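Hi R.,

Here's the chain you asked about this morning:
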Amino acid sequence: MREFFGFGGYERPAEGFLSWQHLTFVGLLMAIMVVLGVMLGLRNKEKEPYVKNKVLIVAAILIDALELFKIVLFCVRASAPMDWLYNLPLFLCSVQLITLPLAAFSKGRVREAALDFVFIFGILGAVAGTIGAGQNYNAYPVLSMDNVVSGLTHSISGFASLYIGFARMTSMKKRNIGITFTILLSVCVLAYVANVLLPYNYMFLMQGDGTPYDILYNLVGGSPVWYPLGVVALFVVYIVAFYWIFFLITHRKSKQNA
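And the predicted structure, written out as tokens:
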């Protein structure tokens, strides 16, 4: 247990990014995520909204409870009470710690926008934070608290995205697109400020840090201006592409049903 939680540092070497241990572990997480998200979503798609919402409430409580446990343990393990400053919800995946509870517990337009945000970014965050998390799997053993809790929280966000889609809870109204952009850009600004003040690498706005962002970082020669702007631009392109594909599919279905 001491070795799993990393007290005193890990004695086991990290198996490495894209090792068979890494791919097996995240592959199992992804499989469970997809099966549960699709199965529960299809089962509840015709049920009352309050019944559908029960699953999101459980997911929201779990993702925040796991993250809070991780932050507390990190602070205890490092014997540094201020270590929480390096665990703020300022990564793209971490935004779900806020938007998922909003989707589960709020009402009205805020709830609609939160549901759409989780739907749009949940899967991307799940894949990027498990399969693409080179910074974690190169640093810690696969079966360690750092990677297991991170894998679980990212998988919950991916599960919630699939569940919202298959349970037909998303609105994807055009009037809420601005809210989606506002949430994302606000987090990017806060992350950049935190990166400069701490310093740190929230939202991977400073460097790729062993993730696929390294491709962009190398492409712009590590420019401190063009690299963070490029990361934000990729987010914007992803949102636009997601909405376009969604509207294309739903418009085609509505034509077929007409």
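The chain has ten helices and no strands.

Let me know if you need anything else.
M.
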